[in-house]
Amino acid sequence: MSKKESFIKGTLILVVATLMVRVLSIVQRVPLEHVFGDTGNSAYGLANNLYLMLLTVASAGIPSTLSKMISERYALNKPQEVSRIFRAALIFSAISGVLMTLLLYLAAPFYAEYIAKVPEASLAIRAIAPALLLFPATAIMRGYFQGRGNITASAISQIIEQILRVITAVGLAFVMLGMGYSDKWLAAGASFGGVLGSIGAFGVMLYYLLKRHKEDQVNSSVVSAHEETIIPYTQIYLDIFKLSIPIVLTSLAVTAVNFIDGSIVKILLIGQIGEVLAEQMLAYLTSRAQMVAGIPPILAIALSTSLIPVISAAFTRKDEDHLRNQVTLAMRIAILTSMPIVIALSTASYSVNGLLFKSLDGSDIVGLLTLMTIFQVTMMISNSILLSLGKPNYSMVNVAIGIAAKVAGSYILSCFLGIYGIIFATGLCFFIITILNLYAIKKIVPFFIMGKRWIGFLITIIVLSGIGYGLNLAGIQMVSILPDRIVFFLTCCTVGIVVVALYPIFLVLLRVIRQDDLKDFPTPLRKIISPFMRLQLSKSVERK
C-alpha cells in the first residue's frame, strides 16, 4: 500500500470512529434522561461536563503533538529518541492522571454545593473521577501509534471505550433504579460508566503496545545508522507543551462553554424563577438540549476534517491557489452539510423533545441551542484550519476572547431573557470566535466562503424553516387520534425527510451550488448532489 493510500485509509478510519463515538455518546443520554429526575439529570450533566473539560486539559493536543514528534524521529532513523520521548510522555501522563483525579475528587463537594448549587452532583463527580487516572496514558499511546502510522489502534480504543461506557452507565442506572436508589446515586452509577470505558480504552492500547513491542524485538537487527544524542527530559517536555498547550486551550471551547453553563445557570436564575424551576432549566439544558445540539456537527465535522490534511499539505508546498480552494471548500462543506440538520431539529424541536424524552418541557431550549450549533460548526472548522496552517496561537487567543464574551453575555442577557439569554450568549461566543478565526485566516490566504451566493442560501434557510415549522405544527395535531410518541415519531420523520429532500433542490435552483463546484466535493457528497444538477441545467436551457 502506498503512503497516499495508507494516509487516506487512516483518515477514513478516524472519521468512521469519530462518527461512531459521537453517535454512541448521544444515544447514551436518551435512556438516562428517562431514568433520572431533574436532580439526577442536573447532577449527571454537571459531572459529565466537568469531567470532559478536565479530560481535554489532561489529554487533548498530546496525541497529535506526540504523533508529530515520533514520526519525525522515525523519518530520521532515530528509534532511541522515539523510545525516550515515549517514556517521558508516559511519565507525564501518570503524574497528570493522578493530579487530575485527586483534583476532581477533592473539589467535587465544593464545586457542586457552592458553585453549581447542586450539592447532589458531588457523588456523581467523584464516581467519574477515577477515569482520569488512565485517560492521559491512553492519549499518549494513541499519539505514539499515530506517529508510527497505526490509526486502527486509536480508532478501536475509542469505539470500545464508548461501548463499555454506554453499557455500564445505562445498565447500572437501571439496576440501581430497580433497587430503589435515589436520584443522586443513580447519577453516580451512570457516571461510573466513564471509569469502565477508560479501562477498556487503556486495555486496547496496552494490547497493541505489547504487540508492537514484540514486533520491534523481532526487527531489532535494524539499528540506527549513527549514534544518537540523548535528549534531556526537560527539552522533551518543553517541545510537547509548546505544541500542545495552544491545541488544548483551543479544544476547550465547547467543553468549557458547557461547563460554564452548568456552573452559572442556577446562580443566574434562582433569583428570577426560584430554585426548583432553575434546577429544571439546568436539567433541560444539560440532559436534553446539549445532547440534541451535538447531532448537527457530526457529519459536517467528519467531512470537513478530511480536508484539513490537504490544507496543511498545500500550505507547506506554498501552493496558494490550491490552499485558497481547499479552505473555501472546508468552510463551505461544513456550513452546507450541517444546515439542513440544524433546520430540521430546530423547527421540529417540540416533536424531537416529545419523542426522545419523558416530557415536552424544555422544547424551546432544545430548539434554540440547536439553532446556535451552526456557529459551533464554523468555529470548530475554522479552528482546525488555523491549526493546519501552523497558527494555533491565533485560535487559542480567539477562543479565550469568545469564552470571555460568553461569560459576560450570560450575565447580561440572562437578566432580560432568562435561560434563553444564556443560550444566546453561547451562540454569541461561537460566532465571535468564528469571525476572529476567519479574519486571521484571510490574513494568511485570501478566500471567500460563498460570496454572492449568501442571498440564495439565506432564502433557502428561511423557506425551509417555515416549511419545517409548519409541518411540525400540522403533525402534532394528530395527538387527538394517535398515541403521542407515534405522532412525534411521524412528525420528526416528515419534517426531516421533507427538509433534507428540498434542501439540495433549493441550493441548486438558487445556484448556491454550481456544476463546477462538484469536482472538488468529497465523493459521498458529490454523489448526492449530482442528480439534482439537472434542475440547474434545465433552467438554463429554458432561459435560452
From TrEMBL:
Task: Kindly give the membrane topology term recorded for this protein.
Answer: Multi-pass membrane protein
Question: Principal place where this protein is found?
Answer: membrane
> Does tRNA-binding appear among the keywords?
no
* InterPro entries listed in its UniProt record: PG_synth_SpoVB, Poly_Biosynth_Transport, Polysacc_synth
| KW Membrane (keyword) present | yes
Give the transmembrane ranges: 49-67, 88-111, 123-141, 162-181, 187-210, 247-271, 291-315, 327-345, 365-387, 394-413, 419-441, 453-474, 486-510
Q: Where in the cell is it found?
A: Cell membrane
The organism's superkingdom is given as Bacteria
Q: What CDD domains is this protein classified in?
A: MATE_SpoVB_like
Q: Which UniProt keywords apply?
A: Cell membrane, Membrane, Transmembrane, Transmembrane helix
Q: Which PANTHER family match?
A: LIPID II FLIPPASE MURJ, PST FAMILY PREDICTED COLANIC ACID TRANSPORTER
In Swiss-Prot or TrEMBL terms, this protein is called: Stage V sporulation protein B
Q: Which organism is it from?
A: Paenibacillus cookii
